[in-house]
Amino acid sequence: MVEKYLSLIEAEIKKQKFGSQPKSLYEPVRYIMGLGGKRLRPLMTALSYSLYRNDVEKIVPMAVAVEAFHNFTLLHDDIMDKAPLRRGKATVHEKWNVNTAILSGDVMLVKVYDMFLALDEKKLKETLSIFNKCAAEVCEGQQWDMEFESERKISEAKYLEMVRLKTAVLLGFSLELGALLANASEKDRKALRDFGVNIGIGFQLKDDLLDVYADKKKFGKQVGGDIIANKKTFLLIKALEKVKGKQKVELEKWLTLGKFSNPKKVKAVTAIYDSLQIPALAEQRIKYFFEKGFSCLDDISNPSSSIHLKGFVQTLIDRQA
């Protein structure tokens, strides 16, 4: 089932040209949309819809609209993060330039609204209402993430709220959208949204862990990039809470150094994480949010229908890259 939906999604992405002229504006859009990835969000929309109806192909364009919005956020995030790679390939601002990447991202967002316009009036109003709330929260989360860079210490609670906004609410929206388009009840829509938000937090914590501990050949991004950038991830936040003595002095040194060898910094900070058993703490929190998410599916009208949704999410939980 997942393979079938993925095939439909990829076909729709290829079908969507997004625009033609100037080529320099639209080619970056086609480039980032064509880089692949897990297509997690549109698949969630399709799987959620399939809990209630069998004609998933009918809503594939709406699922691709979600994917376009997600890639718009990635395109702008990569600029802010000065990220060199996305899915193992050059980021748009590296391949073209920053100004082009900003404009291409802007037009992607416009195209998302164009894609939603295919909905009937009632569904359009409901969809745009929950989408606009989600989109604003994603921006709020990104702003918190940037502000955290200049703050000395961040609490775990503040970090998890930032993750909820920046990352998790879009998964929640993806699932709620599928349920909305399938005419599911408000109760089911909320349960699926809550499922998405909780697993979304779990996925981000998993990404924090993989950024440091993933196999470089499989990861598709710069391993240790968060350490190099002093990014306030769950791992660093917990390390700053627990570290003492000489290790605290060493960690502070790496966090304040202006010039350093990237491999040396990654190796040294990773060693501190290991000695403080930070990976185990991260695994515990990841497990908590995934279990909390799965429990939300017990609240939908026909829990047994979610077997394919659960199975797909479980394969992502088990990933090592």
Question: What is the topology?
Answer:
Layout: H1 2-15, H2 23-33, H3 40-50, H4 60-81, E1 85-86, E2 89-90, H5 92-95, H6 98-116, H7 121-148, H8 156-181, H9 186-213, H10 216-219, H11 225-228, H12 234-242, H13 245-256, H14 262-275, H15 278-296, H16 307-317
3D structure, described in words:
The protein has helices spanning 2-15, 23-33, 40-50, 60-81, 92-95, 98-116, 121-148, 156-181, 186-213, 216-219, 225-228, 234-242, 245-256, 262-275, 278-296, 307-317, and strands at 85-86, 89-90. It is 74% helix and 1% strand. It is globular and about 65 Å long. The mean pLDDT is 92. Helix 3 (40-50) runs antiparallel to helix 4. By secondary structure, it is mainly alpha-helical. Strand 1 (85-86) and strand 2 form a beta hairpin. It has a two-stranded antiparallel ribbon with strand order 1-2.
- Cα(first) to Cα(last) distance is 23 Å
Instruction: Enumerate the spans where pLDDT stays under 50 for 5 or more consecutive residues.
Output: none
Strand order of the largest sheet: 1-2
Report the count of strand segments: 2
Strand content: under 5%
Q: Whole-number radius of gyration?
A: 20 Å
What's the average pLDDT? Answer: 92
How many helical elements?
A: 16
Order of helices and strands: HHHHEEHHHHHHHHHHHH
**Proportion in helices:** over 70%
Shape: globular
